[in-house]
Known about the structure:
The complex is a heterodimer of chains A (362) and B (621).
Chain A: H1 12-33, H2 41-61, H3 64-69, H4 71-88, E1 90-92, E2 95-101, E3 104-107, H5 108-125, H6 134-152, H7 157-173, H8 178-197, H9 201-211, H10 221-234, H11 245-248, H12 260-292, H13 297-321, H14 339-356
Helix pairs in contact in A: 1-2, 1-12, 2-14, 4-5, 4-6, 5-6, 5-7, 5-13, 5-14, 6-7, 7-13, 10-12, 12-13, 13-14
Chain B: H1 2-9, H2 13-40, H3 42-53, E1 54-59, E2 66-67, E3 73-85, H4 90-103, H5 108-117, E4 127-130, H6 135-143, E5 151-160, H7 168-171, E6 174-176, H8 179-184, E7 194-196, H9 199-203, H10 205-208, E8 213-219, E9 225-232, E10 240-241, H11 246-256, E11 261-267, E12 273-279, H12 285-288, H13 293-301, H14 310-313, H15 323-333, E13 342-344, E14 347-350, E15 353-356, E16 362-364, H16 366-371, H17 375-396, H18 418-425, H19 431-438, H20 448-459, E17 463-464, E18 479-480, H21 485-500, E19 518-524, H22 529-535, E20 542-549, E21 556-562, H23 568-571, H24 573-588, H25 602-608
Parallel strand pairs in B: 2-10
Antiparallel strand pairs in B: 1-8, 2-3, 3-4, 3-5, 6-7, 8-9, 11-12, 11-21, 13-16, 14-15, 17-18, 19-20, 20-21
Amino acid sequence: MHKSGSIQDYDWWLLAIAFAICGVGTLEIWSATHASYLAGMHKHQIEWIGLGVVLMLLLSRLDYHLIMDQAPVLYLISIIALISVLAMGHSRFGAKRWLPILGGLLQVSELVKLIIIVVMARFFSEVRSDQLGLGDLLKAAAIVGLPIALIMKQPDLGTALVLLPLVAVGAFLAGLQWKHALAILALAAVMVPVGYHFLKPYQKERVTTFLRPEDDPRGAGYQILQSKIAVGSGGFWGKGLGHGSQNQLGFVPVRYSDFILAALAEELGFAGVFVALLLYMFLLLRLVQNAQRANDRAGMFLVMGVAAVLGFHVLVNVAMVIGMMPVTGIPLPLMSYGGSATLFVFLAIGLVMNVRIRRFVN
Amino acid sequence: MAISLQNEKRLPQGRLAVVSYVIVGMVALLLFGFWKLQIVDSERYAQMAERNRVRSIPIIAPRGSMLDREGRVLVDNYPSFSVLLLRDDPALVEKFLPQIADGLGMTSDELKQQIDASKGMPKFQPIVIKPEASPSDIAFIESHRSDIPVLEMLMVHRRRYPHGDLLASGIGYVGEVSAEQVEASDSKLKPGDTVGKTGLEREYNETLMGIDGMRRVIVNSVGKEVGRLEQQDAIPGKPIQLTIDYDLQAIAEADFANKEGALVAMDGRTGEILAMVSRPTFDPKDFAVRIPNAEWAALNSDPETPLINRAIQAQLAPGSVFKIVMATAMLESKAIPANYSVYCPGFANFYGRTFHCDHPHGSVDLHKGIVASCDVFFYNVGKLLGIDLIDKYSTGLGLGRRTGIDLPGEEPGLVPSEDWVQRVYHHKWYPGSTISVSIGQGAVMVTPIQLARMIDAVASGGTLVQPHLLKNDTGLKPTYFPISDDTVQQVTDGMWGVVNEPDGTTSGLVKLENIDFSGKTGTAQVEGFDLQRKLGKKLKENGWFVGLAPRRNPEIVVAALVQRGGWGSTSAAPIVRDVVKAYYDKKAGPIDRQYTTKAAQPEVLSISKKDAAVAVTQPER
């Protein structure tokens, strides 16, 4: 009999793809910063990746059923953390998103994302029906709604939005009915103009800029325009690592983080982008495959929660880089520089591994 | 329980598969977006990236200098810095406006006005907000290079006039090219270029103006220069050497001091202009940077018209200087015997009107007519010749048409004729008008340069030289209006008498020892007697003197006009004498620098005036 949790049970392909993405990202972080005062950033990123791998392994050892059992407690913790960040968190770039933990600053919403994945997986796995009832749907919305409201208060619209696909994908897999789906879409169509009314001025600006970038080529539209110039000027083969003028001369905004794919597209061209996007596609498909082979619905929902969040990250970030979506400040998983974000992805992969190594357990 | 367990294990494989397709579709969509940017529109974005990264900074070519005939500098350049404002990002400009205004010592309103004034220009084109940066401005810009990305400095060359307003009217001034000039230049000029606006600056603009170079630099996103690309050096403008003799010019300018008028000194053999004065004039320094609007308005509306070059643009009655044309016409046309003489009682009646003479001259022949400038003699000559012959000889000697000197804006003057009266006034020529024209009054109008050339032509047997200011200008051919030797001799002898004979109009005041100096005075009424009577006051006349030496085939001809100076003999003649004497002094021996020192030095003038009985033109400075 196969001993569960042995070393060969880990998804080595998934890990290989993740490392490949990390490698490309670290290379581009180096390229984007080596000639500036930010030089050395890539080393920090490697440290984060190393720490992430350790945390991933640790998390994978702890049976996910045990984790899911604690979902209510975790949910409570996340709500308290979000409230405390609003009450006494660190402000950076005009938003309160960080809590000082372990001598560093932890972006609380990243941790909350992880917890909500667990919470939603628990919730949907307990739906004992092939069809998701309206009552359950509303309950799911309420559970996610509270943290969303708190995160939007930071304000961090991007991260708040990331929680929505959790509900969407979860509900879909839990047997969402078409009539409900259509009703939600109709409701959303009505709510968007109302919601717009409640956006912060800078958020409204981002939306209007996205819709009409030519109105303000050097204001809020500047970032999108410069990103598009970087991407477009890269051509098929790119300008070569370290030779992208848009990147090296600082025209690409936060080129080592949110707009790292613009930097990569400029220096490595369409060829580089093609490889990077294929890596993300394989990563996501690999997650779906793991979900398909999960031992139970709980494991499947857990893995698909991770897939939903990461997929949404990729979609929103990449679409922003090429001007197909407004600027939201959502990083590209494993590529953008950032401690909390990197740790989150590895912890999420840890959850997936957790499910993976227990797929044969009865 | 079994069902529950069953349910717990059953996965929605169909919907999971749907999610897989959604993932593939999403990646395909994103790749399509990249394909559109990086393959389809790549060219356009590559250009935009290049425009982002590269900034072209012009290298202004220095303008050619102007030298006098001996290579002394009349105009050259000095380096200076202009402050440029980069306007391609209006938000940034807006943000830094108060700081910039403060740093450059201007008010925010002044700066805003300048920015508003250039709203029509393309945004990528920087504007000059301070044409001449002070050391503190430069320090301000240098120290804020990294945090105020919209300021830039440009090295420019400005005109320097080491001798102040000397020859200002001839040199002209430079200024920013007008939109019309750019339009007409066949893309040789671009907005912001400095071009010659008037005078020699304009005439020889193409030679003087160099070709600007370009420095292409790499800038980062805040506009800081981080590297250099190629550099195209500026091609400096070529210097031009003028026929002007600084020494003579300085003497003439000093003699004019605060007088109003003009002077042209010309080499009678070649047409080279040795000196050219127009007073009052402007200070070209005012135009070197950017003339303030108020000052410009003042110059333009000044009744004394300082922006006019009177040497070529003042069209005035020549007065008695015109008698040289009459004498030439009388002898050459042979319409009147050479020994013709009249009796002058101080006036004469023609066509029922009395015409005055200065005083009774008694019996007057041609020689005495010129020497004593007897109006009655020339009234009679004019009556006998008729307007047609006067017109023929005036025109033949170059009056009534431009001399073609290498300066813009020359005026043609006017020689009246039957045709002209018919054309302009639609009536027949009144014979009485001929009487006034005979003594250079009435409709006849000349410029100083025309008179200088006319006298030269008469004294040289009818050779009309081409007056010019550019030295070594080959290919300038004189024209001919042949005059017989006999005529030349009689007329020039008369002009010698004006200066040297006891009854000459100059009363011997401007005689020059050992120099064959001759000339003709003129004192022209500014307005008719009738108007003056109406005004109840006598306006002072315009004084003329045209001198030459030697009397035949002159080396130097000088025409001087002193407006409202009264008698030509006392106002204009001494200035001409000083210039002619200086010319001979220089010829006589090595230059002892007496004329090359600064203009308006008293001792220079006292030497040149040593033998002047009356110091009419005592310098005021």
